[in-house]
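agent> call fold_tool(seq_1)
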Amino acid sequence: MGSVLESLGDNKLFRFRDLIENLRKKVEKKMEFFDTFLIYSQSVLRKDKAYVSREASACYKKYVGDSVPEHNDRLQQTFQKLKQKLAITSAGVLSCLDRTCTSHIEYIIEWWREISQGKNSNTDAFVNFVLATIMLANKNKPISSYDYKNALKLRKPPSSVTQAEYHLLSLLLSWPTNEDKPVPDLYQLIKSASHAYEREYKTMFRSRYLRPLFFLGPGVSLNRFVHRRVLEILWTKDALQESNTNWKNESIFRDSIVEERLLKVEGAVRNYRVYARFRGTEVEVDANRRDCLCRSGHVSFYLGFTIKGPVAFSIRRRELVTEGDQKIKTPDASSNGMTETGQKQGADVV
């Protein structure tokens, strides 16, 4: 800024330097709030105005992204590049598919990798590096066969300010496949993610609906986490349409193309709670719609992940019958009683 003012030949403008620098810091802080607020949640009563995100991004780019780093070292320059792409926070990285930075995801990965491998690197940088890699996988681009799970374990948990994203990533990397037996501490990982959310974001979001960030799909490693934007594009058939899906009514899951990208999880409903089953082990997850928990029994659903943890979407009952479609009695999961059913084996009934 000093060189620009000097070239203008008007030294009186120097008195505004502190003002503009203070504005830059305030804009940066407010942009981080809007990013987190709109990426992780949405209004229950009405749609969030799309222009809020657009204008906040434009203001941020003008005051922060296009500015020159205060220190001319490589690390600061790398941070500045991330600011230019609005990917300086975890929420910013997770919104790459919602913005026009999709073509720059490879660069974002390399920049966060460079920062995470630095001498004074913290765990936040590695978390953002892995999250960016998941975003690249959602672009159907090849990713490295790296042991992300153990690499994260070797790093110290971050400060309390950024624990929610750290615990969410730990949960994602430890989530079992249908063939795997759940890790012994899966229940604790779910609780840690929930507690981190309550400490960091519960007051901010209050009564807002938590948007799903990822869904569980077929595949291995990071390739099995499907970003919500991928499903929205499949559903609307329009990559340019803004993200305003009503995830609460679950109508998106009636689309067969969307369903093909997801992995159906077996589970059970008991006492108005829903559980996911993995090779005889059950873990409790949240339900996207509480009205689906009125009847106990075997169910199947699609598993999504919000910043708070795992959530069951599109819960459907599974009924069993004998050959010939004759009614049989199956134990009721909540009362150990008997329930009459008359559906074909394995059929999904809403």
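agent> call fold_tool(seq_2)
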Amino acid sequence: MAQPFGADYSSYYANGIGRDNARGPGFPGLKKRNHHLGNRSWILIDAKGNSEVVELDKPTVMRRCLLPSRDLRLLDPLFIHPSSILGRDKAIVVSLEQIRCIITADEVILKNSVEDSVLQYKYELCKRLEVSRDNYDDLPFEFRALEVALEHTCMSLDAQTKDLELDIYPVLDELASSISTLNLERVRRFKGSLLALTQRVQKVCVEIEHLMNDDGDMAEMYLTEKKERRDILTDSDVCNLINDAKFRSKSAPVSPVGSSSGVHRLQRAFSTMSSTKHGSFLSSSSSGENIDQLEMLLEAYFVGIDNTLNKLLSLKEYIDDTEDLINIKLGNVQNQLIKFELLLRAATFVTAMFAAVAAVFGMNFEDTVFDEASTFNWVLVISGICCGVLYGLFLAYFRNKKVIP
């Protein structure tokens, strides 16, 4: 089993190719893409690693893989669907980010696209299948294809998380030291990207965890073993029906009309009996299936995607802590402004009282104070001292109430 987060993908994302796909499952070029390419063009990859581009319509794919139409809607790139992995009777429907494919027991039907992630998945899967022809691999074909899809998705999301960390941490540190409108706007945009990426990672994590908790769904994904059982059961049914037909032909005479009708009855009996035995035999086998192999595969990538999710949650907590720090700083500045305003109003009140005294003596009335110039100077000095004492009483009151330090 290949280790998650392989070295081949590290160079892929380090060169910046993977970051071009770091914008979520909604592809920006969908409206300009050719409708024929997005709906009927598929890439077939067989068990030997050979690939070819074919044109298949939805009814053909449904008959080929025995899938309902609602499963094919998950693979339509014109619609945005959450990540999902569905196990069916003869196929596994995979919709992980840009990787949308149908995995059967002997081939992968990949949705053709011009996205780099699809081409990277095709290249990596073909490469591993070619290597596995020479080296023994205990994983069946469907699990190798599923492993590459999980590895590519986990690596893509982890690379996007690392890029977001490299971008957002310097901005948060700069914002903590210097609060400005530009920095706040940049953090707001990064926070929106973080929320969208967290939702995508969480959906993949929940989907893998759901599969690990459901033994029935994991047993449904053993397509190779189910196909082998189905082939063995079909051969045994054919032999039994042929032997039964020979026994009846020897025991009783058969007319020409009766022989043709007997063939039809034989076909109907074969289809009825095979379908009944298939269902009972496969269901009983699946219930007791040893699912440790698939469970270990899913668990390896669950640990990786859970680690990515923890990084995003830690980044979100760091943003929340930075916001709390900014709010504390803004609150402190606001308190300082309130204190300054209080002192300014007290000074304005005292100044207004001094101005009132000057205004009273500025009126046109006769008084002995105006007889000597030095006498009015004493009025001004006494008024100023009284205003200063009053302002000092204001300050003492504010300090007593701990309004100002």
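agent> summarizing second result for user.
Residues 19-38, 249-289 have pLDDT under 50 and may be disordered. The longest strand covers residues 41-46.
agent> awaiting next instruction.
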